Amino acid sequence: MASVHESLYFNPMLTNGVVHANVFGVRDWVTPHKMALLVLLSELGRAGPQLGLLERRRLNRLLLPLLQGPDMALSRLRKAIEECCPHLAGSVHIRLKLMAEGELKDMEQFFDDLSDSFSGTEPEVHKTSVVGLFLRHMILAYNKLSFSQVYKLYTALQQYFQKDEKKDGADENEMELTNPEELDGKMEKEELDGPLREEEIACSGPLSQKQAEYFLSQQASLLKNDETKALAPASLQKELNNLLKFNPDFAEAHYLSYLNSLRVQDVFSSTHSLLHYFDRLILTGAESKSNGDEGYGRSLRYAALNLAALHCRFGHYQQAELALQEAIRIAQESNDHVCLQHCLSWLYILEQKIFDSCVLLEHSVNKSLHFGLPYLASLGIQSLVQQRAFAGKAANKLMDALKDSDLLHWKHSLSELIDISIAQKTAIWRLYGRSTMALQQAQTLLSMNSLEAVNVGVQQNNTESFAVVLCHLAELHAEQGYFAAASEILKHLKERFPPNSQHAQLWMLFDQKIQFERAMNDGRYHVADSLVAGITALNSIEGVYRKAIVLKAQNQMSEAHKLLQKLLIHCQKIKNTEMVIRVLLCMAELYWRSSCHTIALPVLLQALALAREYSLQYLASETVLNLAFSQLILGIPEQALNILHMAIEPVLAHGAVLDKGCAMFLVAKCQVASAASYTPQKKIKALESAILNLNEAKTYFAKVDCKEQLRDVLYFQARLFHTLGRTQERNKCAMLFRQLHQELPAHGVPLINAFK
After folding, report:
1. Which of 75-89, 125-139, 452-466, 492-506 comes out lowest in average pLDDT?
2. For residue 373, what pLDDT is reported?
3. For residue 404, what are the CA distances in angstroms to 52, 372, 376, 409, 414?
């Protein structure tokens, strides 16, 4: 189930995806790239009436990222302009060429002419517009340059243009040796509007204030919403180090470094960057300027709070508790109720590691609502729902509580929490065994893909909520035998969440589990055994459980029983009720295979009591099917048939294809066993009904390629056809049985071997 407390990390940089950065001591300056932009703006003003509406729109959309972004090569800038307006790109190139190959006075004259853009009753550019502010900044920056600096700028412009000319010459030579169609294909693949790449950011000097703000804003937003489009951790850290080399007191760069270190689970670097962020925040006086005398104390208490969150994330609960106590003490001294509510939320998380208590959480929700903190209140409600779902509360009450939190989300436009809420509902329905409802919720979230666009044009769809929902969707498809569809979903997950991303472990676990189930269905136990190590690395409890299943399938009963006993004690200790029930069902099957049928009954009754107590309907139905199988083995098939009618409906409605097949196979077995005491005419009808049920079971088993169960069904059908005197059908089933029997390991085919 999705963790709903990931968003409790205090992030002072992000407010609706915008970084509030102050780069002290770094100002705007004129560079050759910015001069090329000035030429573009000048030519755009001249060619205004001649440009079509579509070309003007494209250029307007292109201008903002060019003005805000870092410097780029002239060749890339020309390609970007050519895509919007080829004629204008030629004019810009000619103007730059005349300036670069001319004299210094040509550049001087160019800057003198820029001021004319603001003159007249209807100026070409308004002073307060984005373009107007950029022009004014560049004119002021140029006017402040000394003569030697002006000469250096002119020399840099010449080098900037000559580098582009040399590249064009090299491209022409390459074109003579390259197929033109291949070259066009390469050019089409270049993404001019995509997120910044490492080579685009690297420049000869430091970024200006606006460039640094734009870079940090874009990368922070991408890390939050679409990590795959952000720079790689090593590349991003390299650029941040360059920023900090020119301005070590750039606090927000330290915070982005902290977020980047969290991506790769680097405890030392993340702690180091976080402490540096708050140190620089205090030293530069940024907090004091915005918060008066309280700024210093505010930085200290939020530093302690973030440090507690960091330790909690890495499992250092003792250190987290100490840091949290420090944050609470400072917040109480300053009477900061907002900080105290954040502390209370994290205190609940730490206390949850020791014992289950709803008191802190309920108090946190009430206080958050009182102080007008809907984000914290909603997270508290969802955590409360999650806890009560594990405690076995009724689904209708949980959905009512989530409905109340949804009202908060829509009222305050908390789109991220809407996604978390839907993912939570998907996980709850899966826990209760209602796969149809889970599928509906998953589709709802996926259809909300474009709910909110963030600043850099990336949709907010690469969050943990989407990873959870897509993983459940893949598992649901695999359970219904749609393995190709499940593979496509997992392939999409791998592209959206690469192995080095923070949510990749979710799909890795589901991928391993699906492969494990397929290998077990196909009878390839050695392959399933090799997958256990991967599952254990991602989830130790699941890994031990799967290892026991493999041992059971390989008839190593004593080893499997020892593992299950240890796992049962551990799961009871940590109150993992769902796994406790699954372990009990597995142990009951071990007792059947060891001919200890009477010992299996109390184990199954214990599992049934737990499933009903915790409202786990599907597990309860599965337990009833196992009880029916026990009654069949003990010689009371009529009673087994009676309780089967009570449990089979939820299995057929919400169950996996394999479970449906096993249920129908069990019904057929009970019908045949009950028919022994019937009259001849009634017996024939019962056997024909059993054959129909076996056909249905065969369809289900074939869908998931479960050859061992198919072999058992064919053997059973052949016996029934022989009893009814239907020789042709019997021979067909016998032939198919023989083919499967030669494929699979020969360990005998008893008439009644196990429920699954």
Report:
1. 452-466
2. 86
3. 51, 15, 14, 9, 14
Tell me which residue has tokens 């690395």: 537
* Residue 508 tokens, joined: 């890795």
CA–CA distance, 739 with 608 (Å, rounded to integer): 39
**What is the share, in percent, of the chain residues with pLDDT greater than 90?**
22
Cβ–Cβ under 8 Å, residues 351 and 357:
yes
Dihedral pair phi/psi, residue 293, rounded to 5°: -70, -20
pLDDT at 611: 92
| Lowest mean per-residue pLDDT among 201-210, 393-402, 627-636 | 201-210
Query: How high does pLDDT run on average in the chain?
Result: 80
The pair of structure tokens assigned to 362 is 């309920």
DSSP helix/strand/coil, 448: coil
- Residue-wise burial string across 153-182, b where 16 or more C-beta atoms lie within 10 A, e elsewhere: bbebbeebbeebeeeeeeeeeeeeeeeeee
Q: What are the pLDDT digits (tens) for 370-398?
A: 888 888 888 888 888 888 888 888 888 88
Q: Please choose, from the candidates 578, 505, 468, the residue with its C-alpha nearest in 3D space to the C-alpha of residue 4.
A: 468
Q: Residue 20: phi, psi to the nearest 5?
A: -95, 90
pTM: 0.76
- Helices 657-674, 637-654: axis angle to 10 degrees equals 160
Contact criterion met (CB below 8 Å) for 252 and 218: no
pLDDT of 143 over the 90 cut: no
> Domain map of the chain by residue range?
32-167, 414-450+461-522
Task: Report how far residue 700's alpha carbon sits from residue 708's, in angstroms, rounded to the nearest whole number.
Answer: 13
> What H or E segment, with its residue span, contains residue 570?
helix 557-574
| Ranges 60-74, 243-257, 397-411, 428-442: which has the least confidence | 60-74
**Any idea what DSSP says for residue 453?**
B
Task: State CA 656 to chain mean position distance.
Answer: 25
Does the pLDDT value for residue 354 go beyond 90? no
Please tell me the distance from the alpha carbon of residue 609 to that of residue 629, in angstroms, as a whole number.
18
CB proximity list for 552: less than 8 A, separation 6 or greater = 560, 586, 589, 590, 593
Alpha-carbon gap, residue 481 to 252, rounded angstroms: 49
Closest Cα to residue 275, out of 306, 248, 233?
306
Nearest CA to 217 out of 505, 447, 20, 493 is that of 20
Tokens 């196992």 sit on residue: 626
Between residues 176 and 224, the one the model is more confident about? 224
Burial classification of residue 67, based on how many CB atoms lie within 10 Å of its CB (0-12 exposed, 13-18 middle, 19 or more buried): middle
**CB–CB of 377/368 below 8 Å?**
yes
Predicted confidence at residue 397, as pLDDT, reads 86
The answer to whether residues 627 and 608 touch, using CB atoms and an 8 Å cutoff, is yes
Asked if 712 contacts 733 with a C-beta cutoff of 8 angstroms, the reply is no
756 — pLDDT class (breaks 50, 70, 90) = low
Q: What gap in Å lies between CA 154 and CA 575, rounded to an integer?
A: 72
Model confidence pLDDT, tens digit, residues 52-89: 778 778 887 888 778 777 777 888 888 888 888 877 88
Query: Are 345 and 376 in contact, with CB atoms under 8 Å apart?
Result: yes
Contact between residue 182 and residue 223 where contact means Cβ atoms under 8 Å apart: no
- Whole-angstrom distance, CA of residue 263 vs CA of residue 269: 11
Q: Report the run of H or E that residue 14 belongs to, with start and end.
A: strand 14-15
CATH code of 414-450+461-522, in short, is 1.25.40
Structure tokens at 725: 């005197």
**Contacts with 663 (C-beta within 8 Å, 6 or more apart), sequence order:** 625, 644, 648, 651, 652, 655
Question: Taking 60 as the threshold, does the pLDDT of residue 3 lie above it?
Answer: no
